[in-house]
Amino acid sequence: MKSSKKRKILIAGAGLIGSTMALALASEGFDITVVDGTTAKHRINRNKGRTYALSRTSKNLLTNLGLWDAKRLNACPIENILLSTKRSDTKRHLMEFKRESSDLGPSSYMIEDFYLRRVLEAELIKNSKIQLINALEVIKDETSCFESKVMLSDKSLFNTEILIISDGRESRLAKRLDKGFFKKNYNQVAIVGNLSHKNEHKFVAHQVFLSGGPLAILPLQGKRSTFVWSLPNEMGAKLSKYKDHLFLKHLNKSIGDILDNPALEGEKKIFPLYLRFLRDSVDNRKVFIGDSAQAIHPLAGQGLNLGLRDVASLFEVLLNGKKLGLDLGSDELLKKYESWRSFDRISLATYTDLINILFSNNNVYLGALREFGMNSIDKSELLKSFFVKEAAGEYGNLPELLR
Question: How far apart are CA 310 and CA 112, in angstroms?
């Protein structure tokens, strides 16, 4: 067995959230060890083609950490958001959200996983405060009043004050610890992919509410867009198996006139949709962040942003703890973090759940009610401003990194 090494903070998972967490802490002088079961090359390529809607506050976080470079990240601003509904061949306008002002900047940006991950990997490697260990994972930990002794899959040992867990939706560490989850299966899947097209998207994002579920068409740099199509399990599984030309025929019917002559760029992917979050995201000297702590419906495009809010909040709690000379894994600090994050996590999960219920059914009366409600909001600049600020992440008690 290898000798034990002392590190104040150990992070399990070098994905987008784990990497950002490490870079944030390292910026304030913390010594960090990041452990991931895959290689850097695998991480960069595994989600190639996947995209995210990054809120304005999340952009602030990347800016504050010196990571925001629109060209390097190939970021595309969202200037306008159009919501509509389509039943049979009838499409009806519901609502439009316009950019508030040129001073504020867009409420959100579309970024591609490949570019963001490449930036994060490069920063991890060159940061002298970060030790990155690839192709190993945490398999065991023993916790005392003073520290956690963590064992990796090569039997090496690390003593740490706190273990931050960011190992993805199906967290192995959460399963090993038998953590309790609240979970709801939507009986839906999302088909996602990127498209090239002949017309300019003019930086407009579209959300079309169909009988089977919402379809989002979101702008990327150039004459390119990404789509996220939520469908019932059986219908989604069937469509995902269609060859490209046949799949595009069905997609075009739902898109309507939004895109001119779209063509698939790369492979389309399918994944199950469910709501899941930890009943308690902290444990004895351990804290779960990002997808390890919660998974929500993609219709609001807030999954990555929710994880980055975890990063900003935990960073602030640990930094304040360091300044006061506190044990970083103490119950006092971890409970402070849990209290801060729990309301945001639950409220956003509930919000996306209700929106999905409201727009993923064929009830005639409910359909009339929701269209009336959306049209009423569309006529109120005050209400629209409220929803734009929500999409921008500008709500609640914001950590400094998000400002």
Answer: 21
Which domains are assigned to the chain? 4-183+275-402 (3.50.50.60)
Q: What is the mean pLDDT of residues 155-182?
A: 94
CA distances from 201 to 191, 215, 219, 249, 304 (A): 21, 16, 6, 20, 24
Dump pLDDT digits (tens) for 354-364. Answer: 777 776 666 66
Token duo for residue 382: 């005050």
Mean pLDDT of 20-32: 97
Between 164 and 256, name the one with better pLDDT: 164
pLDDT digits (tens, 9 = 90+) for 250-281: 999 999 899 999 999 999 999 999 999 899 99
pTM (2 d.p.): 0.93
Q: For residues 331 and 220, give the distance between their C-alpha atoms in angstroms, rounded to a whole number.
A: 43
Quote the pLDDT of residue 5: 83
> Taking the C-alpha atoms of 235, 261, 198 and 101 in order, what is their torsion angle to the nearest 10 degrees?
-40
> In the prediction, which pLDDT does 355 show?
74
Three-state SS sequence of the chain: CCCEEEEEEEEECCCHHHHHHHHHHHCCCCCEEEECCCCHHHHHHHCCCCEEEEEHHHHHHHHHCCCCCHHHHCCEEECEEEEEEEECCEEEEEEEEECCCCCCCCCEEEEEHHHHHHHHHHHHHHCCCEEEECCCCEEEEEECCCCEEEEECCCCEEEEEEEEECCCCCCHHHHHCCCCEEEEEEEEEEEEEEEECCCCCCCEEEEEECCCCEEEEEEECCCEEEEEEEEEHHHHHHHHCCCHHHHHHHHHHHHCCCCCCCEEEEEEEEEEEEEEEECCCEECCEEECHHHCEECCHHHCCHHHHHHHHHHHHHHHHHHHHHCCCCCCCHHHHHHHHHHHHHHHHHHHHHHHHHHHHHCCCCHHHHHHHHHHHHHHHCCHHHHHHHHHHHCCCCCCCCHHHC
